[in-house]
Design goal:
This protein is an alpha+beta fold. It has one domain: Nuclear Transport Factor 2, Chain: A, CATH 3.10.450. Helix content is 22%, strand content 41%. The chain has two helices and six strands; from the N terminus they run αββαββββ. It is globular and about 45 Å long. It comes from Streptomyces longisporus.
Length: 138
Amino acid sequence: MALALEDRLAVTELIALHGHLVDGGELDRCDEVFTSDVVYDLSDFGQGEVTGLTAVKEAALALGAKNPVAHHVTNVVIEEAADGRVRARSKGLGIMTDGSCGSVTYEDLVVRVETGWRICRRKVVARRVPLGGLGQEA
């Protein structure tokens, strides 16, 4: 059965909500975006995997002023996965305090819980080269 339009919209809004909460410092509301046992994979940034809401909040606080001042998300693509779960990919732009910006790809696994859709696993992949490295050979 195809994923209902209402569910697609809910997952898209869920992904967008993350930036609003983090940018506003509302880290205590991250349970509106993530499951309590979320795995947040920051391996591409040398930080490994962070597990659980408390650890995600602590990691953000430890990063402090090195966090982006603005998280923008776009290009959300949703596909059904096994067991009623959803895989979502989106592009993220982070604006830093000095005005520089960076680009990432969010790879999310989203599940439906009692309170609605939540991200149970997020992998953040930095975009460092154009075209995924195609044509960059020496």
